[in-house]
Amino acid sequence: MLDHLRRPATLLIATLLPTSLALAACGGGDDDMLEGLDAVTVSGEPGTTPNLDWKGRLKPEKAESTVVEKGDGAALKEGDVVRVDFTVANGWTHEEHFSSYDATGLSVLVTVGTEKEPQSVTDLLATGFAGQIKPGQTLGSRIAVTAGSDVVFGDYLATQAATLLASLDIGNEDGLLFVADLTALAQPAGTAQKAPGWAPAIVEKDGVPTGLDFAGAATPSGTLQVATLVKGDGPVVRSGQTILASYLGQVWKGKKPFDESYSTGRGLEAVVGGQAASVVKGWSQGLVGLPVGSRVILQIPPKLGYGNKAQGDIPAKSTLYFVVDILDAADPEPTPEPTPAATETPAETPSDTASPSPSD
C-alpha cells in the first residue's frame, strides 16, 4: 500500500534515470593499485563524517570487511532492523558518491541477516555493506567495506539501476569504499508521553506494532489529530524535507492494517510539506514540526486523506489512522541556478503566464 502514500518516483530505481545513460569503467591498470584498507585510512568518531586518507588507488576485488571501531551498544541479533549512516567513495577518483551525513542524505534501514530487493537510491548503495552487518556486532560500531563495483552491483548491472550507478560516476570495474556506522535500532528515540483518550491502542508483538485496537477510542472528530507517544530528541522536520519513517495504517475500526512497513524492515522515504510532497495532506500537516525520533498516531479525516475515492482495501470517505516513527530527515537537493539567458525577459514583453499558487 505504499502507493497510497504516493512514494516519490524520484526514489524508485526503475524510474529514476533515463535508460540512455551508460555504465562506464573508471579503473585502469593494476600496477599502481592497493588492496583493501591498504589503500585508505578511515578515522573519525562513529556518527560523524568519516575522514578518508587515501594512500593510493583501490583495487577492485572481492568484498573485505573490517570493524574500524567497536561500539559500546547492544549486540545485534538476527532479524534486528538497524538504522545505518554511511558514505560511499570511489577508490579510483577518491570522490564521495553519497554520504548520509550530508544535510541532503538519508540513512538506511538494514535487517541483520536478511537480503532485500532495493527500492530506493539508499537501498541500492546499501547492498555494498548490508551483508557485512552480522549478529554479534554492536551498536555504535563503524565498519569499512572495500569491494569491486562489479562484485557489489553485479546483479543489477543488466537492469536500469546501472544508469543510476553511471550518474554517480561509479564504473563497472571500480574499487569502492563503504564506511557504515551502526547508529541505532529502527525505533523511536526520545521521551515517552501519555496517549490522549481519542487515540486507539497500538497492538504489538515483540515490541513491534502490528495493528491498532479501537476499543475505547473516541469516534473520529472529523479533524486532523496528532498524538505524540514519544517526543523525539532529534532536529525538527521542516516542510519540503524527505523523511525516513516506519509506519502502519488502518481505517477507523478496521480489523487489520491496510499497509505497514514494520514487518518488512523497510523505511519509507517520503517528502512532507511543500509543493513536492509525496504523501497525503494529513501526513504533511501532522508531521512537519515534529522532531526526528518521534512516534505519533495520526487521525486523518477523509478531506486530508483519500477523500471520496476508494483506494484498494480503503473504502471511500475513510478516516485513516497511522502509527509513524520518524527515523531521519534530509533537506532537498539544491536547485541549480538558472542561466542568465533563461531568466531574462525583455522589458517590452511582459509575461502573461500566471504564477502557480503556493502549496498548502
From TrEMBL:
EC numbers: 5.2.1.8
Gene Ontology molecular functions: peptidyl-prolyl cis-trans isomerase activity
Biased composition annotated in UniProt, kind: Low complexity: 340-360
Top-level enzyme category: isomerase
Annotated stretches, region: Disordered: 328-360
Reactions the enzyme catalyzes: [protein]-peptidylproline (omega=180) = [protein]-peptidylproline (omega=0)
UniProt keyword terms in alphabetical order: Isomerase, Rotamase, Signal
Keyword Isomerase: yes
Any one Pfam family match given in the protein's UniProt record, by short name: FKBP_C
Superkingdom as given in the UniProt entry: Bacteria
Keyword Lyase applies: no
Secretion signal span: 1-24
Positions of the PPIase FKBP-type domain: 240-330
Protein known as: peptidylprolyl isomerase
Source species of the chain: Nocardioides vastitatis
Biological classification of the source: Bacteria, Bacillati, Actinomycetota, Actinomycetes, Propionibacteriales
